[in-house]
Amino acid sequence: MIPQKDRENLKALFASGLAGPVQCTFFTQQQSALAAPGVECEYCKETRELLEEVVALTSLVSLDTHDFVTEAALAKTHGVDRIPAIELKGKAKGRVRFFGVPAGYEFSTLVEDLLDVASGQTKLSAATKAQLATLTQPVHLQVFVTPT
Amino acid sequence: MMAVESPLVTADVIEAIEFPHLSQKYRVMGVPKSIVNEVVEMDGAYPEAQFLAAVLKAVTRP
Fold this sequence. Notes:
By secondary structure, chain A is α+β, with helices and mostly antiparallel strands.
C-alpha cells in the first residue's frame, strides 16, 4: 500500500522521530464463513494492510487487532460504533482516533499523530496549551476528511 | 493535537466517503470539516487560534 520510497522515508522518520511506543488498537471485521463469506468490511482490508506496513517499519509501533463483531463488548467500552476504527495509545492525555481507511492526506495526519502520541508533545503554542488547561468539560472533536 | 495535550479532548478523524450517514448528518460538503461537541462547525482548515476559539465557544455555550 505504501510505495517503497515512502516506506524508506517513513522508516527513517520513525527511527529519528518516534519518542516512545505507540499502540494502535484496531477494530475491524475479520473474514468469517458465518457472516459474509470472504468479505471484510469495505475498507477494513486496506486499513489492516496499511497498519501492518506501518508497524513493520518500526519496533515502537504495535498493532492490537480486535473484531468488531465477536468482541462487541470491547468495542462498546472503547466507544467504537463503526469500523475500521483505530485508536492511538501512548502518551496522549486525551483520545486520538481514526475512522475509515487512513489513506492519502489522512495518512500524513496518522503519521503526525503517531509522532505526537509517542512523545506526548505537540507543536501547539503555549497560549493554546494554557487555554486547553482551563477546560472543565469534555470536548469531542470530529474532523471529516477524504483521502484526496 | 489538542487531544494529545488535554485529557478532556477526544479527537476523531473520520473518512467522509466511508460513512455517508455521518457526512449527511453533519452536512459535510467539503473537507476538512470539523464539528465540536455537535454544536460548533468549522468548514475548511482553521488557523490554530481560530480553531481554539471555536472549541472554547463550544464548551461555554449556555
